[in-house]
Amino acid sequence: MTVIERFLKLVSFDTTSSEESGQHPSTPNQKVLGAELVRQMQELGIQDARMDAFDYVYGTIPANCEKNLPVYGLIAHMDTSPDAPGGPIHARITEVYEGGDIILNEEQGIVLSPREYESLLNHTGKRLIVTDGTTLLGADDKAGVAEILSAAELLLASNLPHGTVKIAFTPDEEIGEGADHFDVAGFGAEYAYTVDGGAIGELEYENFNAASALVEIAGLSIHPGSACGKMVNASLVAMEFASLLPALETPYFTDGYEGFFHLTDMEGSVEHAKLSYIIRDHDREKFEARKAVLEKAAREIDRRYGSGTVKLTIRDSYYNMKEKIEPCMFLVDQAKSAMLELGIAPKVQPIRGGTDGARLSFLGLPCPNLCAGGENFHGRFEYVPVEDMEKITKLLATILWNIAK
Ligand SMILES: [Zn+2]
Questions:
Q1: In the sheet where 369-371 sits, what is the strand order?
Q2: What pTM was computed for the model?
Q3: DSSP states along 265-334
Q4: How far does the centroid of ligand 1 lie from the alpha carbon of residue 236, in Å?
Q5: Averaged over 335-341, what is the pLDDT?
Q6: How many Å lie between the centroid of ligand 1 and the Cα of residue 195?
Q7: Are 288 and 259 in contact (CB under 8 A)?
């Protein structure tokens, strides 16, 4: 099976995860894919391939040389984002792309165009795997899963020396729970790479520090005809709270290393209002300062309307893995040099988001993130170039071969 055949098979499984279910895994279909992955691993000769009760799939490629080498891991996730329909996916491979529009769906008039998605122009001369415009593709992260399995096949078929390689496929990354039940000790790797990045060449070891904040506002409802001097309208107070935050520090106005406050949800009546925020910043001090801004706003609202008007709950989600990767920068360097060797231009950039690798890094498994090759993640215009998936497969094997040189 080629990496492309493997990928097309994997995307036929709908593994959309769910933020609401509260189950582990969050959706039962992920277990169906987990079982398929165990089957494929066994077929490759990975003897100890197994799925645990939480739907984590693990396996080992034993070392084929005597050298005392560190154990490396490769990790990808098998769920897809709940932000877009996850199936049934009608994937197809285009002709060699020469620029211009790609008609995804004649009937519905859905077109993938470089006018909206400039990245297409980076991929002329390649064949692209696209959808019919009604679902996501699932290259995030089934491209990573397929590349890891095909890299395993390369390692097992070659007699080039390599150390012990551990493989893991995780559920529920897209809902931020991919590391929740990861058995770091049982996995047994000293270092790992997640293969969950975007376009070929992407290499990441910095991500946001992340927290969520829930702002609950208690109002006082009185008949509006006799409310003079008494009513506290929670919805209006919520708007007042929002106005106390820096207006230009939102996702729309920020880029690169700039952090933000992001209002993700609001609801309100006179009696009660609720604002949900996420807070993001690469810099830990600025991240803490952002949380302090929310606390200050809450105190100010309480000062204006009486104590207990605002209930603020802030919860940290994950931290920037940079501090955990910096002591082992060779992980980044060896990925870079393998890329250069294969003619891939490395693009090291901060992630404006998180990865499972960030949380795993804080659990003691330093884990930079490698490209999986796809573009336009989490949407109906997601696509992945065939040639890039083939190259990334080779890249994974090359990194592991080079370590044994
Ligand atoms: Zn992903």
A1: 50-51, 57-61, 165-170, 72-77, 191-197, 369-371, 202-204, 347-348
A2: 0.90
A3: EEEE-SSEEEEEEEEEESSHHHHHHHHHHHHHHHHHHHHHH-TTSEEEEEEEEE--THHHHGGGTHHHHH
A4: 38
A5: 98
A6: 8
A7: no
**Single-letter amino acid code for the residue at 247:** A
Active site residue 173: yes
- Centre of ligand 1 to C-alpha 169, Å, is 12
Q: What is the pLDDT of residue 354?
A: 86
Predicted pLDDT at 383: 98
Predicted pLDDT at 356: 87
**If you measure from the C-alpha of residue 207 to the centroid of ligand 1, how many angstroms do you get, rounded to a whole number?**
14
Q: What is the pLDDT of residue 355?
A: 85
Please pick, among 79, 172, 174, 204, the residue that the annotation labels catalytic: 79
Please say if the pLDDT value at position 313 is more than 90: yes
- The C-alpha atoms of residue 42 and residue 78 are separated, in whole angstroms, by 18
Q: In 151-221, where do the E strands start and end?
A: 165-170, 191-197, 202-204, 209-218
pLDDT tens profile 73-106: 999 999 999 999 999 999 999 999 999 999 999 9
With 90 as the cut, is the pLDDT of residue 390 above it? yes
* Residue 208 pLDDT > 90: yes
Cα(230) to centroid(ligand 1), Å:
50
Are 181 and 359 in contact, with CB atoms under 8 Å apart? no
Q: What is the mean pLDDT of residues 268-296?
A: 98
| β-bridge pairing 260-268 and 50-51 | unpaired
Contact 188, 325 (CB under 8 A): no
Single out the catalytic residue among 14, 55, 147, 173. Answer: 173
How far is residue 328's CA from residue 109's CA, in Å, rounded to a whole number?
Answer: 49
- The tokens for 69 are 């080498």
Distance 14 CA to ligand 1 centre (A): 15
Q: How far is the CA of 307 from the centre of ligand 1 (A)?
A: 42
Report the SS3 class of residue 335: helix
Structure tokens belonging to residue 211: 């927290």
333 is annotated as an active-site residue: no
Give me the mean pLDDT over the 228-252 stretch: 97
Cα–Cα dist 161/179, whole Å: 30
User: Which is nearest to 290 in space by CA: 349, 236, 250?
Assistant: 250
Residues with Cβ–ion distance below 5 A, ligand 1 = 140-141, 196
Cα angle 33-34-39, degrees, rounded to a multiple of 5: 95
